[in-house]
Amino acid sequence: MACLWLLDRRMNGVRRSLREKARTITAGSWKAACMAAFLAFCGASQMVCGQAPAAQQPAVQQAAPAWAQPGSSTHVQVAPPQDFHRPSRNFNTPIGIFEGQSDIGGPLVPGSASYDGATERYTINSAGYNVWYQRDEFRYLWRKMSGDVSLAADIALPDPNGYGDRKAVLIIRQNLEDDSKEAIVALHGAGMIQLAQRAEKGVRVKDMEFRVGGRGRPGGESPDSLVTVAAKRIGIEKRGDSFALFVSLEGEPMHQFGPPITLHLEGPFYVGIGFCSHMPDKSDTAVLSNVVLENSAGKVR
User: What is 90-212+227-294's CATH number, 3.40.50.1370, 3.30.390.30, 2.60.120.200, 3.40.309.10?
Assistant: First the structure.
């Protein structure tokens, strides 16, 4: 609109100039005067419109580095370079019982989350190469806490074709940086259950892994087929510097799984739930429900 207004003003100037010239020029030079005025108008239109701001180009998504690509028959995922980091994107936006949300490690595809109070379900959408090695990428819903903690949730992964190592996580972290100290319990897409820790900032995660299966169960090709049993509910308990994994495989009361780990975190720290698709540039979804979060030990249920 500004361009058209300026053109209109310039046209008015051209018309006044022609009227003035018409009083003094001969009929034979009228054609030349008109041509000169027309060329002046064209030049003015190009000058004025050329000053209009260029249309903003859409942002181009960064390409995922080769090391971040998930493992396959032709590729092995490896650790990021030791000095590779991306800043987390943090949002002080409460959701359900949590105070804020973060895209830890700045995944290439921004994450999101929603909460349905009627069903007490948190739906988390996230990309992210992994929650592993010396840095993480995942969507995190968190609350700041100190002291002992009990946290548990039912977990569902709606897409049956998601990557096998995608993981829904319950995490207690020292801070929101991508390489923070942390204690993790996780349920993987292929059914593995995990208790893990990053003992110091920037070091590689180490863990204890559990794979549960049974024979004679639905889904096997024969009664002798080993069928994966995916946990229905997982939990983490912090008791001082001790962190333990709790599991309910098929709806039975929560019970401790394996030995605890030892990790010291300074309060306040961050406690919450999250999800990582294990795909650096593709989002997936996890649903966590019936979340229990207590500021004391012994309340995982």
Answer: 2.60.120.200
